[in-house]
Structures are given as C-alpha cells and as structure tokens.
Amino acid sequence: MLEISNNVHLADWEIELSAIRAMGNGGQRVNKVATAIHLRFDIKRSSLPAAYKERLLASKDSRVTKEGVVIIKAQNFRTQEMNKDDALKRLKEFIKSVMVVQKIRRATKPTKGSVQRRLTGKANRKDIKKTRKKVQF
C-alpha cells in the first residue's frame, strides 16, 4: 500500500510493476538481468478521490498517456528493489505535486527608488565608458 497523504492511499492492485532490462552502457551483466522497473498506474481505475483524478488527467506531464495511464521507468540503481522504491517514490511525488495550488502572480510596477537606482547606475556606466575614449585636442 502506497500512502500519498494521511487520508489518501493506493492499494497494491492499482499499481502494476514489471521488471525490464535497463538501457544504457553495457558491462558484464548487460542484456542478462532485468533490474529496471516499469510502473503503470491507471488513473481512471484507481481509488483516488475525484479531485486528484481530475488534476492528474488535466496535467500536461509527458508521463501521463492519452488513456490516462501514468508510466514511470526507473533504472537509476543496480538492484530491482531500489528501482522499485524509486519508481513508487516518484509516483507519490508526482501525485502530490499535482495537488499543490500555484500562487497567482500579479504584475507589479517597479518602485520609484529602484527605477532611480537603475538610471543612476546607467549614468555611471556612461561616464566610465566616456573616460575610455581617446582624448581629442
């Protein structure tokens, strides 16, 4: 069971884990051991609350397919157990991140002091560059 928050949990039957061969540079064990984990999570079939489902399906993340399935491939570690833990952790973080409400940004004008400092700095640069010129007699 994967715990998302205090009152939201995912049962084991909702998450499909399968072992696959990892991609990348070879070694002595290349093409022999399936240590990477392929995680599939069907949003529509899950027991998540409706608010979670709506936000997950509306997200523009590339891990969510058109059918509403989250696909995560974990292959950072050499053991299957560590990759499994990594995939579950990434799924949990993804679901949590979707539920965070972004603060609305309001455009503001710069303060008079900041405008004045900027213009003063520009004038100083102008004077410095003038002193670099050749002196004409």
UniProtKB/TrEMBL annotation:
| Region described as Disordered: spans on this chain | 108-137
Q: Which family does it belong to?
A: Belongs to the prokaryotic/mitochondrial release factor family.
Where do Basic residues bias regions lie? 127-137
Q: Which organism is it from?
A: Colwellia psychrerythraea (Vibrio psychroerythus)
Matching Gene3D superfamilies, A to Z? 3.30.160.20
Q: What is this protein called?
A: Class I peptide chain release factor
Name all Prokaryotic-type class I peptide chain release factors domain ranges: 7-132
Domain of life, per UniProt, equals: Bacteria
Query: Which BP terms from GO are recorded?
Result: rescue of stalled ribosome
Q: Which GO molecular function annotations are given, in alphabetical order?
A: peptidyl-tRNA hydrolase activity; ribosome binding; translation release factor activity
| PANTHER family for this protein | PEPTIDYL-TRNA HYDROLASE ARFB
